Amino acid sequence: MAEGSEVTDNSAEVAADVVDGAAVRLVYRPQPADILVGLRVRARIKRWGLLLRGVFLALWVGQWLVGTLNRGSADVVSTALFLFAALVVGGYPRLQAAQVQRLVGWQGEYRTTVSPAGITARSDYSTLIQKWSVLRGYRETRGHFVLLSRDPNIMCLEVLPKHALSTAEDTVRLRALLDRHTTRV
After folding, report:
1. Burial of 49 from C-beta contacts in 10 A (0-12 / 13-18 / 19+)
2. Do 38 and 144 contact (CB within 8 A), yes or no?
3. Virtual CA dihedral for 13, 15, 21, 24, nearest 10 degrees?
4. What kind and span of H or E run contains 122?
5. Distances in whole angstroms, Cα of residue 91 to Cα of each of 95, 111, 165
6. Which terminus of the chain, N or C, has fewer Cβ atoms within 10 Å?
7. Tens digit of pLDDT for each residue in 45-67?
8. How many angstroms separate the CA atoms of 160 and 174, rounded?
9. Of all helices (H) and strands (E), which one includes residue 127?
């Protein structure tokens, strides 16, 4: 694509959705807090990640306790390693959200359209079109709608922040569209 050229979409599906007014539009810049919400929803649904992080932390606690009891006092190196492991396990979702933010944040403003045909997310550099069949369902949080992919590991998420909607009526319309085309999980 040549620099400075404008991308236009002439598809009949998008034009039909615009005419019938059924589409809901969101305009936002991805934020680490939005991504963190999506990752937490994914973790609650998958549960394996939470379980593995808990087991890993329990093993570190056990190793530290056994070493401390055997020596009769806490070792500085062992304690430092234990605290580091606890910080990594506890902070992993935030580290992951920061990494995802680096991957998507540079793309600028996202303009997402949710319609009966599916979800279209456009940025300054890309366009992603998803049909409803690729989604397992969605979960609504206080400030977001998190759409989850159908694959077993839920590798793809679409986080739609409610603050990106124009009006409160758009929230109701978006919820109705999601309920009509996918399920709550």
Report:
1. middle
2. yes
3. 70
4. strand 118-122
5. 6, 30, 30
6. N
7. 887 777 887 888 888 888 888 88
8. 10
9. strand 127-130
Distance CA 80, CA 83 (A): 5
Average pLDDT, the chain: 84
pLDDT at residue 59 in the model: 86
* pLDDT per position as a tens digit, 109-146: 999 999 999 999 999 999 999 999 999 999 999 999 99
Residue with tokens 């002439």: 10
Token readout for 2 is 């040549």
Intra-chain end-to-end CA distance of the chain, in Å: 39
The gap from C-alpha 67 to its chain's centroid, in whole angstroms, comes to 39
Tokens, residue 27: 């305009």
Closest CA to 44 of 174, 122, 146, 160: 146
